[in-house]
Amino acid sequence: DGEASVDHDGNLVELEPEYSIYTFPRGARPGTFLHTVFEEIEFTAPVDSPETVATLTDLLQKENYDLVWLPVLQQLIKDVLNCSLDGQGMKLVDKNPSQRLTEMEFLLPITLLSSRMLNKVIAKHDTVSAKTGELGFATVSGMLKGFIDLVFEHDGKYYVLDWKSNHLGDDPSVYRGAQLVEAMRDHRYDLQYQIYALALQRFLRSRMPNYDYETHFGGVFYLFLRGMEAGSDSGIFHARPSEALLLELEQLIDGEQIDA
């Protein structure tokens, strides 16, 4: 619903609602929708191409969203795909399908994992985890199944990318620095990206006989979509879990005793 204002004659006038990525619906379902947008579009196609317009129109109609959101999504896509993720020209708009893997499924067999040892390992190796409260769960074993939103290659290195639709505020300035790290901590995305990083390393190791962490592992990007602008680093969180962390995390889930 639009907001109301009073005109010069004292009459109540309904204002047109503002349509922007900040006012796009929030919650689990809209979040899934935004994920789907970036799964379905072709990164290298212009946002006004018939292909992209048809894809977005179809997705909006399936979710019963008004087509007034179409230009909002087009602007979002343009901003996100044209951001330099590393400040040195790494852009998703340049990644063709052969350089991307969408929704990569992984399975991590867990022999035995305790929260006490996990907390020690991740706090020792990751500054985000070190300043976050401890996880508490019963000792677990079994199979951990998950999906990585996107894996992509750039200059011979491979990266995990996760789309986040969290609303942190209505200005790009709140999607950077300490506020972005705080959002990562609040939702324990640190543990999520550590697991994703391990899953990616195991995937690469299984397919590359010469796999080497320093040569091939690029790290993780968490993109907070609502805060991203082309030409800015807002909305971009990057981390590169260390080789030591990935080694100890793997030893942990394999049930090995480690000196943490």
Automatic annotation (TrEMBL):
It holds the Pfam family PDDEXK_1. Residues 30-240 form the PD-(D/E)XK endonuclease-like domain. It comes from the Bacteria. Signal peptide: none annotated. CDD domains: RecB_C-like (cd22352). InterPro entries: PDDEXK-like_dom_sf, PDDEXK_AddAB-type, Restrct_endonuc-II-like. This is Exodeoxyribonuclease V subunit. It comes from Photobacterium profundum. The gene is recB.
